């Protein structure tokens, strides 16, 4: 197993480099970079100009400009060159890429162009919101889906199975953002009841609440966004659990156990459960990462939650490259490590699995 893990760890390096190369190359062809963003703001801000990046000051009211930038009319070439130097765009793309990767290998992600805050500090600041949504959504999906999936497998073909399958399919077909808007309209004072808050993770008077009050206030705020994020993963996990149990129930060892006179619960939870739950339990890390990174952007925006999804979206719109590439590098690395963790979960749940004898 050690050799297998070592091979997987070594594969992380070229995979991560490939991810960064593709995204860095694509960015070079996307118009509206950070310099263009600043120039557009300066052109519309009057005759007093202040640089945004690095805290350096520069002003201009002379005639001239650089034809490479649409917003550079009326700005002196020296000002444009100073901006390029501050952002590092005075160097060729290949040199910038190698410097970026060397810094990232040392986990030096630099500072945001427009916030003057370190990328790591930004990620740490926004991470609690995304962890809250991802963790609770995943746990609730497992707590509901596993018992429901087992029940559907035991009563396969019954009216209960038919009705719940229809409900699950409808839930899976509803886009998460549409369901989130529906929850806001119904339960956040949109048109009907004002039961849950419209925005934020905690109330404004959070510091003044007691410990129990803080816990209740926290759950009061996360109820709607967590429900909105859970709906799609809940449907997928339920059907996965049902199909996994159905496959095991039809096997010979189950028939033999029933023939020996064991009760249905003893057979189901003493023999079938461990084998059937292998794929469900082992998939927990990847499911959590998927919910954590994939479903948070729209939900955080709709519920005004300041998390990683919203941070990434704002960085992409503003062309804040340090935040974009820094978070891409960190999340890509985490995703690859979670893939290895999922394999280790398979071995933990069922020691008979041997990845050592398989090719990567």
From TrEMBL:
PROSITE patterns: ABC_TM1 (PS50928). It comes from the Bacteria. PANTHER family: INNER MEMBRANE ABC TRANSPORTER, INNER MEMBRANE ABC TRANSPORTER PERMEASE PROTEIN YEJB. This is Microcin C ABC transporter permease YejB. Belongs to the binding-protein-dependent transport system permease family. SUPFAM superfamilies: MetI-like (SSF161098). It is a multi-pass membrane protein. Keywords: Cell membrane, Membrane, Transmembrane, Transmembrane helix, Transport. The chain crosses the membrane at residues 9-30, 131-150, 162-187, 218-241, 276-303, 323-349. It is found in: Cell membrane. Residues 127-346 form the ABC transmembrane type-1 domain.
């Amino acid at each position: 197993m050690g050799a297998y893990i070592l091979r997987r760890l070594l594969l992380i390096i070229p995979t991560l480099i490939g991810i960064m190369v593709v995204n860095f190359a694509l960015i070079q062809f996307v118009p509206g970079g950070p310099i263009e963003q600043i120039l557009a703001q300066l052109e519309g801000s009057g005759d007093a100009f202040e640089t945004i990046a690095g805290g350096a000051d520069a002003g201009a009211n002379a005639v001239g400009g650089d034809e490479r930038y649409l917003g550079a009319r009326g700005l002196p070439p020296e000002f444009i060159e100073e901006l390029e130097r501050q952002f590092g765009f005075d160097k060729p793309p290949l040199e910038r890429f190698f410097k970026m990767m060397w810094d990232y290998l040392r986990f030096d992600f630099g500072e945001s162009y427009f916030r003057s805050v370190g990328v790591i500090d930004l990620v740490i600041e926004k991470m609690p919101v995304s962890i809250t949504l991802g963790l609770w959504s995943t746990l609730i999906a497992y707590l509901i889906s596993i018992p429901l999936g087992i029940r559907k497998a035991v009563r396969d073909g019954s009216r209960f199975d038919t009705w719940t399958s229809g409900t699950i399919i409808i839930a899976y077909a509803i886009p998460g953002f549409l369901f989130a808007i529906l929850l806001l309209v119904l339960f956040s004072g949109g048109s009907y009841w004002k039961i849950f808050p419209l925005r934020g993770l905690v109330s404004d008077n959070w510091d003044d609440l007691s410990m129990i009050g803080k816990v209740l206030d926290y759950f009061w705020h996360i109820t709607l966004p967590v429900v909105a994020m859970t709906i799609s993963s809940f449907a997928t996990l339920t059907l996965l659990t049902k199909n996994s149990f159905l496959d095991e129930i039809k096997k010979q060892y189950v028939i033999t156990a029933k023939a020996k006179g064991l009760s249905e619960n003893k057979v189901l939870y003493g023999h079938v459960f461990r084998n059937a739950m292998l794929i469900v339990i082992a998939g927990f890390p990847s499911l959590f990462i998927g919910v954590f990174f994939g479903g948070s952007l729209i939900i955080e925006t709709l519920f005004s939650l300041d998390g990683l999804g919203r941070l990434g979206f704002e960085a992409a719109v503003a062309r804040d490259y340090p935040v974009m590439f820094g978070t891409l590098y960190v999340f890509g690395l985490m995703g690859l490590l979670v893939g290895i963790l999922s394999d280790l979960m398979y071995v933990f749940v069922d020691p008979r699995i041997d990845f050592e004898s398989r090719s990567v």
